[in-house]
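Q: Sequence in, structure out?
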Amino acid sequence: MKIFYGVQGTGNGHITRARVMAKELYAAGCQVDFQFSGRPAEQYFDMEVFNGYRVKTGLTFNTHKGQVSYLKTALEASPIRFVRDIGSLDLSAYDLVISDFEPVTAWAAKRQQKKVLGIGHQYAFGHKIPRAGGDPIADRVMKYFAPADIGIGLHWHHFGQPILPPIIETPELPQQVQANKIVVYLPFEDGDEVVRLLCPFENFEFHVYSPQPAVSKYAHVQCKPLSRDGFQRDLYDCAGIISNAGFELASESLQLGKKILVKPLHSQMEQISNAEALKQLGYGHTMFDLAPQVIEDWLHNPHSLRVTYPNVAKIIVQWINAGMPAMDTEFVERVWESVEVLQVKH
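A: Exactly. Output:
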């Protein structure tokens, strides 16, 4: 089977999910061409698994100090280039088109009357899941940004809806966890402000990852450039993570049994809804500003949860090879039967 797979590259979560899908698609003998959009080509890293991928400008959201600006997003968009990219993408040779919320691929397929399979967290918002921070603009963006004919929505819990668990690696669990080690990933916040926020907590060791690392003069606050391998090593044996409320990183953290503190992007409905879902499920803690007291309370709380998820990527690839039959209630329930939630204390 020959597949064209478009991936939204604005956040690393989409790329992380695509890495897992790529391995399972290759293992099933599929030929896959990947396209990424949403950030400059030079800002992608650790992309070897995607075998000569292509990059388009696409559409992305402008953020400043932890908040989405729809006005700046509109002003900085390149509609002419976007339309040109859609028109120049020929999908006629492919048996299947997949979009992980990537708009060029989704709209090119729609223009060529090719069926699109949408895989990603955003497609869960077509169902009754926890939602917060919505507005008419956000709702229209979610619906029309990267439309799909068939949408496989992913979430941490099914909420009684026909959605599947997250697509994540299923690694061996760490034998030892450093109780005072915290990974910090707040790429949409001011790096220097994050360092100042963390410096009073001298009994903890912070590993701060960001696109443009800040400078820290504190031994217990280490600032590091983005690196897939380095980040995974630190995530593996840390006790907890402080991050924005992206879906994929929280999913990995739950799978590894890390305690979670999220600060959602202001005016970003998906992240605010993710924070609400974590709160409702009891899977994590939230803060809506960089609040020292909230961080201190969370740091001294040793409890977390481990949520074990199946190999959802493999399940989806098997479903694709079976001809993509309707995902009925029995199918969805069978996938969720293997999910377990366990208490962890560091």
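The longest strand covers residues 2-8.
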